Amino acid sequence: MDGYAVVSSDGAGEFPVVKDITAGFEHDFELLPGQVAYITTGAPVPKGADAVIKVEWTESVSGKSDFVRLTHSVEKGQTRA
What is the DSSP string of 43-74? Predict the structure, then answer.
């Protein structure tokens, strides 16, 4: 599922998208609180992330192309589908 890797304790809100992670590529990246990473189906969830929220549960942020608004929160280990 395409979506955003998140730190669940951050909750809903606006966050910078700091990395795009795609399937088939190794990465040595750690997500920090207050950040999200775009993630495609089959891509590994980065270190530091403890949940994934489906792209349909997000919105773009007007005037901030490198930010996304999470419209729902998730719990640790949850994938919001």
Answer: PPPPBT--EEEEGGGEEEETTEEEEEEE-S--
